[in-house]
Fold Phosphoserine phosphatase.
Amino acid sequence: MNTVAFVTRRAFLVFAAFLTCASTVMAQADPLPSWSDTAPKKAIVAFVERVTRENTPDFVPEPDRIAVFDNDGTLWVEHPMYTQLAFILDRVKVMAKEHPEWNEQQPFKAALEGDLSALAASGEKGLLELVMTTHAGMTVDDFQKIVTDWIATARDPRFKRPYTELVYQPMLELLAYLRANGFKTFIASGGGVEFMRPWTERVYGIPPEQVIGSSVKTEFKERDGVPILFRLPEVNFIDDKAGKPVGINQFIGRRPIAAFGNSDGDLEMLEWTTSGGSTPRLGMIVHHTDADREYAYDRKTDFGRLDQALDVATDNGWVVVDMKNDWKEIFPKR
Amino acid sequence: MNTVAFVTRRAFLVFAAFLTCASTVMAQADPLPSWSDTAPKKAIVAFVERVTRENTPDFVPEPDRIAVFDNDGTLWVEHPMYTQLAFILDRVKVMAKEHPEWNEQQPFKAALEGDLSALAASGEKGLLELVMTTHAGMTVDDFQKIVTDWIATARDPRFKRPYTELVYQPMLELLAYLRANGFKTFIASGGGVEFMRPWTERVYGIPPEQVIGSSVKTEFKERDGVPILFRLPEVNFIDDKAGKPVGINQFIGRRPIAAFGNSDGDLEMLEWTTSGGSTPRLGMIVHHTDADREYAYDRKTDFGRLDQALDVATDNGWVVVDMKNDWKEIFPKR
């Protein structure tokens, strides 16, 4: 690029930045329009104003404005089953064409018949076998393509929409609001990291390198003289419960100042985030209370159980979002 | 923040951005002043111009402009020994006050006497014991403080400067040049990730979350009712050789388009980065050829051996930097 072209491009970028800023300011009249004017919204705005007000004891410099989000049940729907489980069941069906023996063999038989209770009966061992069969034994590039193709075509049976449209509009606004205020937003999910990365940038504005999740081991090797990364059927890391603060520290290397979750799997992440440090911290739990517009569940469910974290939320100063009352919209408009 | 204050702040930021852009443009007259006008500099500039030229087949969108850098010997000095080893030897001396038995016990005796050949004789097992003794058994916060204090006071014996000043000025310019062109810069080092993160942002402009390295396992637990992350004396991940592409994929989730290294430990990272993809890739090796201003070594050294990677560099189209001829300056001016 020669200097004149560079200057021109720079000038354009500055102008574009100005337009972006201007439109942001207009939108900022209400940065969280899908949130009711209740306690959670007030807590979010108060927190952001406190940590961004310069020359006050609560001020947090931009690089330390780290916010972490659980994915399943916090950013998108996790009922009637985790979306990744729907992916697994679909993959087993596709792969079964080359595995006729699966018709009589658990846990594949249960998966093929969509028999969730038989699947549950196969236990963690059975589920892990399904995960490894569908998630390993190929290169990272191949798996990325499989996920990308599936997520583009799969539809949720109840809402008849792509899963990437069953994300929570209020949380999309929250992500954008935090980023507009100098936060860096990360996902810290128990789900598979390579199952999320192909679409999180498009859907949440969160790039792959800001997604933390569970993973299988990968191996670097040559195949036909070409270097590849091959996915092995072996657990590398489970980013759930006590694994979440471990994963966050491993990937980010600093403690977040805000954490958003919805289940007991997020308990330790919330504890780690909201303890320590002299500046304000925000911990928030999305409580699924809206059976009409989404789902209502907490202490008794196989997907996203919220029990212990709900018990200690008040004592820890965590904000509990009552979806039914605190969210005007659930999903983005079609 | 009220809207007026917000608008004012935004206006200020836009103005500040404009000033930044203007000064960047001026500096861009020569973005790499410490590089001689030889082949490596030309290769860098040509590569950056190709991947940033819109509406051409070589154009790479900003999010995919990922560049990875080895640290030891690529961004800062690694002779006469890795800086992290100097840290270990210093730590052993400090800790020895509470371990009188170390005076007679290897590998500690060798460490206390600075006897590098006896240390080498203790092998990988001995070195690992020293690493675990000095790097584990405390919280991540405590270790961060130990590193921060050490790096602020330790001095390199030959150059009599802090180690963080023994970084390569041409590479600092390269990092800034890439970032000014929309690249995101990462470190992928065999060194300990928690040994680098406390200072990489200040020294290289690379934030902790963009540092990939070797690590020990950490455990989340409560101590006196406070959640902590405790460092265990157990290897979690070795980010070297074939581990580098694995670590890069695990942390970043996409393949870099540029990689910079200096030793055989970077071979697989260079292979992974420069193979695959339809757009240009840049692989570069810093060859230490300047015994007067820094050090001269390649095939025969214990620290940063460059042998196999040098053999295959030409065939792979990697650019080899001859420090003596290609770099006008080695370190930042005092």
